[in-house]
Design a protein that fits this description.
- It is a single chain.
- 27% of the residues lie in helices and 23% in strands.
- It is an alpha/beta fold.
- It has two domains: 131 residues, Rossmann fold; 68 residues, Alpha-Beta Plaits (2-Layer Sandwich).
- The strands form three sheets. Strands 2-1-3-6-12-13 form a six-stranded mixed β-sheet, sandwiched between helices. Strands 8-9-7-10 form a four-stranded antiparallel β-sheet. It has a three-stranded antiparallel β-sheet with strand order 4-5-11, covered by helices on one side.
- α1 crosses α2.
- The longest helix is centred in the first third of the chain and has 15 residues.
- The C terminus is likely disordered.
- It binds ribulose-5-phosphate (5RP).
- The site of ribulose-5-phosphate (5RP) has 18 residues, from α2 and α4.
Length: 237
């Protein structure tokens, strides 16, 4: 049985087959996306012309360390973005943001012609909400935002605790909402959260995934919307 890191790497390696010369590529955050970014670095080292759009400061540093030219201002669509996820349901809706980078991850996913999610099989769930749902909020009024959000779940905590809260790349806080029994109506919950004053973004990614590569012991399985088409073979080098 391969270990979890080997599965994460297998999913990321499969996604690397989609990278083509000249592409603008969204680079995800977290331990699975890291394998993808390192792989893009290897392609660049072999001469492929690829530019990266990082989803977090940590990924920007990783990309720079791997020799990937970085785009700091987005002027058009991204050709392909590859990112991890915390949970994936059978409709390929996601929970993301347990690594704290959900705001830029969502912006980049939405700006991408093809958004590819790479996960090991432990992330596949029958229903979202097995773990917490991260919500990024403005520090300025976070307590009143928390009171409003608390009624949407069974418990709510500020990440890192009140004494030393976790601060996102955007200078905001993360509230982790737990919903015992899972999320029954993710679109309705997403709408309710978005309508709450002080919310910057939440970790529900609904209808954004084009392709999901799930790596299990039998190898990577490619799931996706029919419009995304099959994964193409790499061009001969
Ligand atoms: C960060 C994320 C990550 O993609 C998610 O947490 C998965 O990370 P990992 O691949 O390390 O399990 O959403 O905000």
């Amino acid at each position: 049985m391969p270990d979890q890191d080997a599965l994460k790497r297998a999913a990321a390696d499969k996604a690397l087959e989609l990278v083509r010369d000249g592409m603008l590529v969204g680079l995800g955050s977290g331990s699975t996306a890291r394998f993808f970014t390192e792989g893009v670095g290897r392609l660049v080292a072999r001469g492929m012309k690829v530019r990266g759009v990082p989803t977090s400061r940590a990924t920007a540093e990783l990309a720079a360390a791997n020799g990937i030219p970085i785009v700091t201002e987005l002027l058009g669509p991204i050709d392909l973005s590859v990112d991890g996820a915390d949970e994936v349901d059978p409709s390929l809706n996601l929970i993301k943001g347990r690594g704290g980078a959900l705001f830029r991850e969502k912006v980049i996913a939405a700006a991408s012609r093809r958004f590819v999610v790479v996960v090991d099989a432990s992330k596949a769930v029958p229903k979202l909400g097995v773990g917490v749902l991260p919500i990024e909020v403005l520090p300025f009024l976070w307590r009143s935002t928390a009171v409003r959000l608390a009624s949407l779940g069974t418990s709510l905590t500020v990440r890192g605790g009140e004494e030393a809260p976790y601060i996102t790349d955007n200078g905001n806080l993360i509230l982790d909402l737990r919903i015992e029994g899972g999320i029954s109506d993710a679109p309705a919950l997403a709408q309710a959260i978005r309508g709450t004053i002080g919310v910057v973004e939440h970790g529900l990614f609904i209808g954004l995934t084009d392709t999901c590569i799930v790596a299990g012991p039998d190898g990577p399985e490619v799931l996706g919307k029919p419009s995304a088409g099959p994964i193409q073979q790499p061009r001969p080098s």
